[in-house]
Design brief:
Keywords: Cell membrane, Cell projection, Cytoplasm, Cytoskeleton, Glycoprotein, Golgi apparatus, Membrane, Signal, Transmembrane, Transmembrane helix, Ubl conjugation. This is Epsilon-sarcoglycan. The structure is a single chain. The chain is α+β, with helices and mostly antiparallel strands. Among the domains are: about 5-130, Immunoglobulin-like (Sandwich), CATH 2.60.40; about 140-260, no CATH class. It contains ten helices and eleven strands. The protein has a four-stranded mixed sheet with strand order 1-7-6-3, with no helix packed on it. A four-stranded antiparallel sheet has the order 9-10-8-11, with no helix packed on it.
């Protein structure tokens, strides 16, 4: 049973006459039953009349139209209501399974249609009046996973009617209702590859008033459970009645007997002292409260850190200024060889610094020429006193040394020497 009713059908069903004054602001009333699948199709043809025609801009009958649905006064739909529209050139579908909690509470859904070519909008209100039913909940519920269907394909009245007919032929119940339809993507499934016309898959839950048939119970046999664990298809005798149109994954079928389900009661812990009771009103404190003086708190907050910082400052100053050992005490504790070595380094450093300040003074003794090893005479300096040392090249050759003196060498004895 699909709970889909238009305004005209509802008017005939109630035996009254409904007059629609304005199509742009008319409210459409539907009366689904709690616990039974509700499907409402948002037809593009119905909303095309809300947009003015533009004959010069193309074919207006094929304008892309999308829909936005939300609960009146809220940005989203109720939790039990879902919406799907595959492309802007297809109809939108509202579907879901209302619960008994919403019985007697009209739910107003705002439907806004957007014309993606002209950027115009049209708004309608859909009033969902959920009605109670004595047949719900049905005691036996079965959920099938159909691999070769998408949600919008399964929501079509013809396809869903064929599936319920096949289930009724296998189950043989007196009352059979479609309870809910869920896309496999909402259960953690993956989007299929766009090859070989693969489908997303859909879960369909149905309910009946009689126990499960022997065909459906074949899934629970140990042989089929073993085949399912090995990722093999189980052997089901009634699978051929579905195989012509619906490919069912029998390993994912779920059979639930509500009469045998043990209700689980969750006990709430006792609230603590800081939690308000569940019933009652909140009584704020009175306005006659005395103001508190925060001056003492301010003084304590600043005085204690300031005192600690001052004490640390005095301790650091006494350590650095009054506890210095001095140079004399340091020299007394230093070995003599280390002091002599340090003094020689200081003297050499001072001599090099004085040489770098004036290059025209006489050269140090370490740079004077040595004596002649043969004659014992002192060799005059390589450069005269008036030689400019700043222009002296780093590498000197014989041609550059004008005043170089050749040191005589001993001649070897022999008749062949000339």
């Amino acid at each position: 049973m699909i709970s889909t009713m238009s305004a005209a059908a509802v008017a005939v069903w109630l035996g009254t006459v409904v007059t629609i004054l304005s199509r742009s602001h008319a409210d459409r009333n539907v009366y689904p039953s709690a616990g039974v699948l509700f499907v409402h199709v948002l037809e593009r043809e119905y909303f095309k009349g809300e947009f003015p025609p533009y004959p010069k801009s193309g074919d207006a009958s094929n304008d892309p139209i999308t829909f936005n649905t939300n609960l009146m006064g809220y940005p989203d739909r109720p939790g039990w209501l879902r919406y799907i529209q595959r492309t802007p050139h297809s109809d939108g579908v509202l579907y879901g399974s209302p619960t008994a909690e919403h019985v007697g509470k009209p739910t107003v859904i705002e439907i806004t249609a957007y014309n993606r070519r002209t950027f115009e909008t049209a708004r309608h209100n859909l009033v969902i009046n959920i009605m109670a039913t004595e047949e719900f909940p049905l005691s036996y519920q079965a959920e099938f996973y159909i691999k070769n269907m998408n949600v919008e394909e399964m929501l079509a009245s013809e396809v869903l009617g064929d599936f319920l007919g096949a289930v009724k032929n296998v189950w043989q119940p007196e009352r059979l209702n479609a309870i809910n339809i869920t896309s496999a993507l909402d259960r953690g499934g993956r989007v299929p590859l766009p090859i070989n016309n693969l489908k997303e898959g859909v879960y369909v839950m149905v309910g009946a008033d009689v126990a499960f048939s022997s065909c459906l119970r074949e899934v629970e046999s140990p042989h089929n459970q073993l085949r399912c664990s090995q990722e093999m298809e189980p052997v089901i005798s009634c699978d051929k009645k579905f195989r012509a149109q619906f490919h069912i994954d029998w390993c994912k079928i779920s059979l639930v007997d509500i009469n045998k389900v043990v209700p689980v009661y969750i006990t709430r812990p006792d609230p603590g002292t800081g939690i308000l009771p569940e019933f009652g009103e909140y009584n704020p404190p009175s306005e006659s409260l005395k103001s508190r003086d925060y001056f003492s708190d301010f003084i304590i907050t600043l005085a204690v850190p300031s005192a600690v910082a001052l004490v640390l400052f005095f301790i650091l100053g006494y350590t650095m200024c009054c506890r210095r050992e001095g140079v004399e005490k340091r020299n007394m504790q230093t070995p003599d060889i280390q002091l002599v070595h340090h003094s020689s380094i200081q003297k050499s450093t001072k001599e090099l610094r004085s040489m770098s300040k004036n290059r025209e003074i006489s050269w140090p003794l370490s740079t004077l020429p040595v004596f002649n090893p043969l004659s014992g005479e002192v060799v005059p300096p390589i450069h005269p006193d008036n030689y400019e040392t700043t222009s002296m090249p780093l590498m000197q050759t014989q041609t550059n040394l004008q005043n170089q003196i050749t040191i005589p060498q001993q001649r070897p004895s022999g008749k062949w020497y000339s």
